[in-house]
Every structure is written in structure tokens, then in C-alpha cells.
Amino acid sequence: MNTRLPPLMKAVAAALATSAALLVTGPLQAADKEPISPIKPAKVTNPAMVELGKKLFFDPRLSRSGFISCNSCHNLSMGGSDNLKTSIGHNWHKGSINSPTVLNSSMNLAQFWDGRAKDLQAQAGGPIDNPGEMAFTHELAVNILTSIPAYRTEFKNAFKKEPIDIDQVTLAIATFEETLVTPNSRFDQWLVGKTNALSKDEIAGYQLFKNSGCVSCHNGPAVGGNSFQKMGVVEPYKDTTGAQGRFAVTGKDADRFNFKVPTLRNVELTYPYFHDGAADTLTQAVTTMGRIQLGRTFTADENAKIVAFLKTLTGEQPKLTLPILPPSSDNTPRPKPFDN
Questions:
Q1: Range 47-177 classified under CATH 1.10.1040.10
Q2: pLDDT of 294
Q3: What percent of the chain is modeled with pLDDT above 70?
Q4: For residue 2, pLDDT beyond 50
Q5: Cβ pair 58, 322 in contact under 8 A
Q6: What is the pLDDT at residue 65?
Q7: How far is 140 from 287, CA to CA, in rounded Å?
Q8: What are the CA-CA distances from residue 119 to residues 166, 303, 324 (Å)?
Q9: Dihedral in degrees, nearest 10, Cα atoms 185, 189, 192, 196
Q10: Cα–Cα distances in Å, from 76 out to 54, 104, 129, 190, 275?
């Protein structure tokens, strides 16, 4: 049998092979060129430290009142936020800014809206000694933990040294928070080739999101969190908090009203929106951002399609077993919830 093909048939065979390859790999190749990339599952390298950090994240004894924990403002049952315009601190103190989600926060270039904490460990210590939040001190928090025998054992197992110090506390919390990622959203499934993961309107919403310029700030695996940008590029934003953004950190006038771009992962869960929580719904947020950042008025249909796309960014939420906290000892100082 003659297996040699004439030139024309060779060209046809090569074209068919190329087409078949594109059918198999096309979506994956397209994903490589998208401004948004899939989230990867967390890798745990120190289970003992993660477990310790989880307990500390949920432990209200790190607050003066014995009532407020990290989870109070970053509720893992509510998308890692508290769904309030501003959080409630010690003695019903009204917070000054909206609480950003803790989910996927390890992907941020810095922490807090103004980026004043370089990483999650630096952020973890802030609320503990903030008089308007947990209203404690680092020294008192360490004293509480040191007074609890089971905690002393867990810290020793995780860090291989004694005594407990605040750096260990914040590192353990940060290590736990690094596991709070949300992979396998429907949009991620679409990115890696599952073409039926999104509806026609959701894909149209993504195209609008890209073509309108939203991706210039909201890109990467977290769909944001990787830059500081001015709030109100085309039209001034009417802030309701008095926040100055990066200016409060750098003192540079050019940084006035520059904020860390928030992640849009799980955004349907993390309402209200913006640093002042002024937008109650995604529809309102899209309308405002289109106007003040892009100089564009989206039609109701365009807005609905963008919102439909944004909801596809909700990923698998962290699956946690609620930690059982070690009991206080007789020597553990008791909380003072009603002190000013």
C-alpha cells in the first residue's frame, strides 16, 4: 500500500490536524491571553500553624471585650467581609472605612485600602491594638494566650520555641489566611476550557468588562488587588468617609484618593461596595464605576450583563471545621466588654 501522499493532500491533512488541535487546545490557549487568570488551590506546608492561626482568627479573647474576633469583620460565612458599610468595633465604635474581604487577600500587593500594611502578617496585628476595633494591646493579647496551657502547647508545636510573642501570633493568623482562596469559579472553569460554564449573557458581560476598560485595573488571578488607582478618574467621587487613600501613608499629594483596587473575586457576596460602602448593589457599583472611572453610561442591558459576569467570579468557599477554642485557665484575665 502506498502511504506517500501528493502535495495537495499533504496540505489538506496538515490543515485538518491543525484544526483538530485548535478544537482541543483553543480555549486553553485563549485563556493564556486573557487578563484574568484562574485561582490555584492553596498549598498547606505547615498544618499545625494553619490550625493554630484558625483558632486565633476565631478567638474573641484577643479583644478587650472578649467579644470581637478577626471573623467579626471578616466573616467566613459571608464572603470574608461583614456586609456593613463600616465595621462595628469596641463599645459599638463606628469604623471609618469598609471592611475588605479576607478571601484571596494573600494575592494583594499590600493590605488595607491605603496599603499601609505590607503583608498579611503586618495587617493581622493592626486591629488587635486599634482602640476603635479590638481595643487591646499586643502585650495583653500575648498574656492572654500565655495563660492558656493548650495554647502554649500549640504555639510550641508550630514554632518549636518559647515563649509566645506577637510575631508568632500574627504569623499564625496570616498563615491561616493564606489558605482562604476560592478556586474553581464558573469563570475559572470557562478559562480552562469548559465552554458551557458560562451563559451567552455572562460571556457578553465579560466582553463588555474587557472592552470598556475595566480590566486595566481589575486583572490577574484576584481580578484586582495588584495596584493603587485614583477613585474618580473622569468625574470626582463624592466620598462619605473623609478617607484620603495612599496620601495618608505617603503624604504625597499625587496619592490623594488613590486606593488599592479591590478584588472582584466573590464580589456578589461582599456588598456593600467601595471604600465607603456607598454602593449597596452590584448594579449601583457598575453604574458608578462606569461614570467616574470610564466616563461611560452603561445601558440597563449592558449593566445586567456585566453584573451577570461578575457573579461568575464566585469560587468555592473555604471548607472549614469550626475550631473548638481551648478553655481559659483560672489565671486567664477575664474580658471587660462594657468598659469604655
A1: no
A2: 98
A3: 91
A4: no
A5: yes
A6: 97
A7: 46
A8: 15, 34, 27
A9: -150
A10: 11, 12, 22, 26, 20
Is 133 among the residues known to form the active site?
A: yes
Compute the distance between CA of residue 56 and CA of residue 1 in angstroms, rounded to an integer: 75
Cβ atoms 224, 261 nearer than 8 A:
yes
Q: Note the pLDDT of residue 339.
A: 79
Joined together, the cell numbers standing for residue 245 give 487613600
Inform me whether the pLDDT recorded for 39 exceeds 90: yes
Domain with CATH 1.10.760.10 in the chain: 29-41+184-311, 47-177
pLDDT computed for residue 30 by the predictor:
56
Q: CATH code for 29-41+184-311?
A: 1.10.760.10
pTM of the predicted model over 0.85: yes
Q: Which candidate in 34, 51, 133, 139 is catalytic?
A: 133
From residue 131, give the alpha-carbon distance in Å to each of 73, 134, 214, 242.
15, 6, 37, 19
Q: What are phi and psi of 260, to 5 degrees?
A: -65, 130
